[in-house]
Amino acid sequence: MVPLSFAGHEFLALPEAALFWPARSALLVADLHFEKASWYARFGQFLPPHDSRATLDMIEMLVERTGVRAVWSLGDSFHDADGAARLDQGTRARLAALTDRLDWVWITGNHDVGMADTPGGERRADMQVDGIWLRHEADPADPRPEISGHFHPKFRLSVRGRHVSRRCFVGSRTKLILPALGALTGGLDAGHGEIRRVMGADATALVPVAGRLLRFPIA
Question: Which of 13, 51, 190, 210 is the most exposed place for a label (fewest CB within 10 A)?
Fold first, then answer.
């Protein structure tokens, strides 16, 4: 875990693509995309059907490691509105056990809008905690501090002919974008125009590596 200061609060960035807020005993995750593989299978594109279990394995590990009392999922938690209904019985029971014992909030994203069912927890469009807005997609018109997901940022670098790609956070003075935690999620280059558009001129890719937070300006 690597210290990350944002909007007057102290967080810990996890290389597994999550954010730990010690003062609130909360784990923030984004873009889990549960049941992405089963969605593709409906259209004849078969992917390994273990993505939901792999993503849940990661969340359970992070909850155990941090000892949090809350998990706040910042949208696109399921790949589509019917994703929760397609969870196998075992995965659904494990997820329900987590949502029963934790303060679990599902913030609605563009993929899971209209979802009728979740395995426990509370569904919200967005929420405000200690002056920071938590939402799915960053709002370039909102000057208030916010933490969001949506873009699945990755930092890509060429070093001595080798291409390196890592999931990263993207931060500015008032905005912080989380990487995607889902096992089958791809990534958008942190320097992509859409990310720069919402983040502003002071955007920086933040990569937690070996106990350090590496910073790469992307504007």
Answer: 210
